[in-house]
Structure formats: C-alpha cells, structure tokens
C-alpha cells in the first residue's frame, strides 16, 4: 500500500528595513513556524515567496513576492494547493486580510496560519475576527514604533542637542565623538558625531549673512560668489549631489542658508515630515505612499543649548529673518493671487530643450506664456550657451497640438494610432544585469528542486537543509537585484494594454473641442504628454508616454501648422 502524497504548500514571509534582523535569520524562523504547522498534516513546502525590505503597510499587490504569489493563484498549474504564512503580523496590516483572502477563496487555495492552527475558513466569523485583530495589532505596532522613535529623536534634539544623522549643512563637516552610547549600536560599530566648522566653506556662510544684512539681494549675492569662483554647495560636495549641475550659485541656495538656524550653533530636527497619502483616491486598496513635506517653523525642534560651534550669533540670524519677511511682504499679495488663478493648460509639461528644465508659466498682457529664465536663476549661467529668456506662447501651441491629437485619436484612426504606439516601443532586449539575475534565479530554482528530491530520497536532512539555506539566500539576493534593475528598465506593453489605456480616455476629439483649460490639462496629463521646446528652430516635440517612447514635432509661432496623416504618421515622427 503506497503512502499518500504530501500536500504541496507555498510559503510566504516578509522582513522590512525597519527590522533589526538579518533577512536569512528572519526567513529561517518564519519558515520553521510554517513547517511545524503543516508537517503533522502531511504538508510539504515546495516553493517560497519572501519579501525583503518592503514595509508591512504596502498592500500585497505592491509587494514584489506577494504580488507574484497572487499571480500564481490564477495559474491552475501553480504546483501548490495551499499557502502557509509563518507570521501574520508580518503578512497582514490593517484591513489587508479582508482584501486578500477572497482571492484565495476564489481560486480554491487554502491559507494556513499558525495562530489559527490550520487553514482559515472564510465563512468562519471567529477566524475572520482573529485575523482582523492581528491586522490591527500589526498596524498598532508600526504606529507605536513610529511614535517612540519620533519622541526619542525630539527629546535627543531638544535636551541633548544630539546630531541625528543626515548630510551636514553647507559650512560644516562632521567630527567623530566616539562609540555610540547604545551598547548594541556601539558593538555594531556606530559612532556619535557632531557638526564642526569647515575651514573652506564656513567663511562663505558668514559672508552671505553679512552681505544680505548690508542690503544685497539674493541674486546679487549669488552673482558675487560665482564671479569669485566660489563653488556652490552642490559643486563643493559632488559625491552627494551628482543629480545637480553644480554650475553656479542660485537664489534658492542663498535662501536656504539664510533660513537655517543650525548656523547659530543649535541642533534642529523635524524640518520635514513624511505624510502618507493615498496612492489612488479611486482605489483605496492600493494603499498609501510617503510624501516629503516641509513643516512650519513652529513645528521645528531646536535644541535649548548651543551644541556645536556657531557660525553666526542669534542676533544676526534674527535680523536676517526679519529682513526676509519684510521683503516678502513688499510683493503685492493681490497680484500674486491673481496670477495663481490663471489657468495654464500645459502646467508642468513643457521643458526647455537647452537646459531640460521645466518652463514656468507667466501671464503677459492677458495671454499665457511659458518661459525659461535659467540665467536669472543661476548666477552667471550665461556662460552656458543658453538664451537669457526663452518664451513660448500657449495659444501658439494649443491649436496645432489639439488638431494632431483629434486626428490621431478619432474612431477612424484609433487602430492606426494604437498600432503606431505599439510599434514605437523599445524592443524587449534584456539588460545584462537583468539577464544575469534571471539566470541566477533559474539556476537556484533548479538546485532547490534537486535538493528537495534528495530529501525525498533519504539524504541527510541536516546537510541538505544547509544547501537549501545557502541557495535560497543566493536566490533572494538575485531577486533583489532584479527588482532594482527592473525599476529603471522600459517595459513593453501589449497592444491590448495600450488600447485599453487609450480607449479609457474617451472621445478625445470632443473633449478638446469643447473643454475648458482644466479639462484639457487633465486629458494631456492622462496621455502622459511631455513637450520640449527648441527655441532655435521654434519647434515643440510632443511625446505621448504610455510607458513607451513616442513623439511628434509641431511648428509654433511663425508658420504654425499641425502634422497631417498624409505627411507623417501620428506617432513617432518629425514634421518640418
């Protein structure tokens, strides 16, 4: 009589960056709990899904491995008939259980949890209540951690003036104060640090305050520093500012220095906060995303005592703040409010081809314009080949662009447009890193299958378990590398996906013909429109981005005309 075949299980676990645990150790104990639950029932784990470095607040659809597991549920040949979770606190957060378990029930896949002692019964109110409690406990635990950390950091700043990390402000560098007072952190090699004046840049900070109080404007100060060949903050510290040009001092850099109370010798914390906002207000199940925002000055935590050598005294700092306030009040508030109410159809969509910066909206004589004043923002930037002012009138672009869109997205031409969009996408050629990571994952999967077969054949469990652990660690690293690489790789969409996106926009021709500027701007936003203005040729390259690279050139100002279907294809061409 043959023994029954073991029931195949998939294992799911998770560890986030907020955990002070080694990923392999965390995976090990979660896997041990899951195995202990299913072994008495003849279960055997045949595949694993383990998320590393992703917060529990992310819904399953936004976690890499969890989403892969949900996709596997749809496959009748998935290779497992049940899923076991080692730790519900790490798997489910808030109401995630209620949003996830219906999928398991729909595809007939059992979900096993140690706290239930077996499979969850979707129709059992007690099971649902228990899992809801665990979701609430998980959310409460995360909130308590955040509260404790923020309270501790506020106290350390206010009472101790401790430097809590981050890059030092311009004018300072960091000095080592010895091992961290927390024994665990000290054993891990962490040290306390303190701000100390930088010999090269601290005199520049004093110069900025002196010149500002002497009556110089922000741009005049920036102009003088650049003329004296003083490197701006991003040029002084290129290692941490590779994303910035470092070409010259800007008015914003001067303003940041003038408003930073750290130069008085006091430590400051909580200048910014991270707000959690809904990723999609129309789909709450997608969860939240973090958005960095500035706090008001009364929310900043400033140390009571001087904690590092000051570059300026308190009186100088307060005089600078008062002068900044007076100058800001000198601006006509009613004029600013009137300008803010003016609609800009292409707000945030037009870029200058010379410097690749967004062009700013400006009303002039009742008409909307977009301008790039690169030389007016960065001192002496006219050393770069950039016009002093680049202007583009909005109504010179609106009509030819609308005519092109209307012709390209009418029902008669929609199939042709979708085909052109699909053909214009980059080919599915894998980058070397992606191919290497996928090859490593495939090799690890083959090894794991061999090791499990060896276990079934009676090999030494201790020896084989070591092999499995080592291979799984290698697979986890390859998956992390693959995820990082894929975030920057262009992904090719299918024709049906492009068609669904385009048709979801509705009758574009009708909308553009009768719409007010707000509705037009929304259509352009949903199309992923990006406009690049070339001032020398007075042309605008209009790119419609549905996760691919497409574009068309239209002429503006003198000799305006829209491209026609006969002269060029609706997507991916250049008109003279």
Automatic annotation (TrEMBL):
<feature type="domain" description="Recombinase">
    <location>
        <begin position="169"/>
        <end position="330"/>
    </location>
</feature>
<dbReference type="Pfam" id="PF00239">
    <property type="entry name" value="Resolvase"/>
</dbReference>
<dbReference type="Pfam" id="PF13408">
    <property type="entry name" value="Zn_ribbon_recom"/>
</dbReference>
<dbReference type="InterPro" id="IPR006119">
    <property type="entry name" value="Resolv_N"/>
</dbReference>
<dbReference type="GO" id="GO:0003677">
    <property type="term" value="F:DNA binding"/>
</dbReference>
<dbReference type="InterPro" id="IPR011109">
    <property type="entry name" value="DNA_bind_recombinase_dom"/>
</dbReference>
<dbReference type="InterPro" id="IPR036162">
    <property type="entry name" value="Resolvase-like_N_sf"/>
</dbReference>
<feature type="region of interest" description="Disordered">
    <location>
        <begin position="1"/>
        <end position="26"/>
    </location>
</feature>
<dbReference type="InterPro" id="IPR050639">
    <property type="entry name" value="SSR_resolvase"/>
</dbReference>
<protein>
    <submittedName>
        <fullName>Recombinase family protein</fullName>
    </submittedName>
</protein>
<dbReference type="InterPro" id="IPR025827">
    <property type="entry name" value="Zn_ribbon_recom_dom"/>
</dbReference>
<dbReference type="InterPro" id="IPR038109">
    <property type="entry name" value="DNA_bind_recomb_sf"/>
</dbReference>
<feature type="region of interest" description="Disordered">
    <location>
        <begin position="474"/>
        <end position="494"/>
    </location>
</feature>
<dbReference type="Pfam" id="PF07508">
    <property type="entry name" value="Recombinase"/>
</dbReference>
<dbReference type="GO" id="GO:0000150">
    <property type="term" value="F:DNA strand exchange activity"/>
</dbReference>
């Amino acid at each position: 009589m043959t023994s029954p075949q073991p029931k195949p299980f998939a294992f799911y676990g998770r560890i986030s960056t907020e955990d002070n645990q080694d990923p392999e150790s965390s995976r090990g104990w979660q896997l041990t709990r899951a195995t202990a639950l299913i072994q008495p029932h003849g279960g055997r784990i045949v595949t694993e899904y383990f998320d590393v470095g992703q917060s529990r607040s992310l819904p399953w659809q936004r976690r890499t491995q969890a989403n892969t597991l949900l996709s596997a549920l749809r496959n009748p040949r998935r290779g497992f008939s049940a899923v076991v979770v080692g730790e519900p606190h790490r798997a489910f957060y808030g109401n995630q259980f209620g949003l996830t378990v219906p999928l398991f029930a729909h595809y007939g896949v059992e979900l096993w949890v140690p706290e239930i002692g077996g499979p969850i019964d979707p129709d059992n109110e007690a099971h649902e209540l228990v899992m809801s409690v665990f979701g609430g406990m998980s959310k409460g635990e995360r909130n308590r951690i955040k509260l404790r950390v923020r309270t501790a950091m506020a106290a350390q700043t206010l009472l101790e003036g401790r430097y809590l990390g981050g890059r030092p402000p311009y004018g300072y560098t960091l000095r080592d104060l010895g091992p961290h007072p927390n024994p665990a952190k000290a054993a891990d090699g962490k040290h306390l640090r303190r701000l100390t004046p930088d010999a090269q840049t601290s005199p520049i900070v004093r110069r900025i305050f002196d010149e500002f109080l002497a009556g110089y404007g922000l741009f005049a100060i920036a102009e003088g520093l650049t003329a004296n060949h003083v490197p701006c903050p991003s040029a002084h510290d290129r290692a941490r500012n590779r994303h910035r040009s470092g070409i010259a001092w800007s008015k914003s850099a001067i303003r940041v220095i003038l408003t930073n109370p750290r130069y008085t010798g006091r430590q400051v914390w909580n200048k910014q906060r991270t707000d959690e906002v809904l990723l999609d207000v129309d789909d709450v199940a997608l969860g939240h995303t973090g958005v960095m925002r500035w706090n008001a000055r009364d929310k900043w935590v400033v140390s009571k005592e001087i904690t590092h050598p000051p570059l300026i005294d308190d009186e100088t700092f307060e005089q600078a703040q008062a002068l900044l306030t007076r100058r800001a009040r000198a601006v006509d508030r009613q004029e600013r409010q009137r300008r803010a109410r003016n609609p800009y159809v292409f707000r945030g969509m037009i870029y200058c081809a010379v410097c690749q910066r967004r062009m700013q909206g400006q009303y002039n004589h009742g008409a909307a314009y977009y301008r790039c004043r690169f030389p007016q923002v960065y001192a002496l930037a006219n050393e770069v080949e950039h016009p002093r002012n680049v202007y583009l009138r909005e109504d010179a672009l609106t009509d030819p662009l609308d005519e092109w869109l209307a012709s390209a997205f009418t029902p008669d031409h929609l199939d042709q447009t979708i085909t052109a969009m699909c053909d214009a996408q980059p080919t599915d050629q894998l980058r070397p890193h992606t191919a290497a990571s996928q090859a490593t994952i495939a090799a690890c999967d083959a090894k794991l299958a061999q090791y499990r077969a060896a276990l079934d054949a009676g090999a030494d469990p201790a020896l084989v378990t070591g092999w499995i652990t080592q291979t799984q660690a290698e697979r986890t690293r390859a998956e992390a590398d693959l995820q990082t690489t894929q975030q920057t790789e262009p992904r090719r969409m299918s024709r049906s996906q492009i068609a669904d996106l385009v048709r979801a926009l509705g009758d574009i021709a009708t909308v553009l013909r009768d719409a007010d500027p707000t509705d037009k701007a929304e259509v352009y936003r949903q199309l992923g429109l990006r406009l690049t203005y070339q001032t020398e040729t007075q042309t605008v390259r209009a790119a419609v981005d549905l996760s691919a690279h497409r574009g068309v050139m239209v002429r503006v100002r003198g000799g305006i005309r829209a491209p026609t279907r006969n002269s060029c294809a609706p997507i991916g061409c250049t008109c003279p």
